[in-house]
Write a structure and sequence with these properties.
Layout lengths: L8 H14 L5 H13 L5 H7 L9 H11 L7 H16 L16 H4 L1 H4 L9 H18 L10 H33 L2
Helix pairs in contact: 1-5, 3-4, 5-9, 8-9
Length: 192
Amino acid sequence: MRALSKYSTWQIEMAVTASLLRLDLLFDKQIVEYTHYLLDNEYYDDEMLAIIDDDRLYPSNKQELFRSAISNLGFPSVTVEQASWIYTYSIIHVCGEQPENYYIFEDSHLDIYDKFYDFLDEDDNLQKVDEFKGLIYQLDDAHSNAKMGYVQRGYNDPKTLFILKRDFFEICHLWLRRNQPRIQCIFKALYA
């Protein structure tokens, strides 16, 4: 995250994790896995033991325990708005790293819609991503038809697909440039 170069990878990870938790985007299994990761890296809080304990007689609210544990470990406290911007930035930053051959679109195991579903999410967690939606639907449809052997000039021929893919990464870069000051302000407030 070039815009956040003055923050450590760990500070960014803590902010993203706190954001996912604030937006209720972490499930119990992910919380348990991340708790193990923290323990393996010598971060400890008493609440973490209750998170990894699967006692069926005394089930625990893993989200509340995790919220308490990461707070005790010094993770930043984020508002819902801050969490939404951090979450959106983390997704677009990863997608904005333009590969030289656009391999990200060629994986036969997942279609484009599945890869970029977060851009199409309807739960209002993402900030200002409407410009992505039409292009992703168009890319997904064109790519799916090309895989089935239906190729039409100007719709899904190789040249048109290349242009659509290039446009996707350009939109990512524009979003990152446009919103970089806001993201920097959020991180400055979190780590002041």
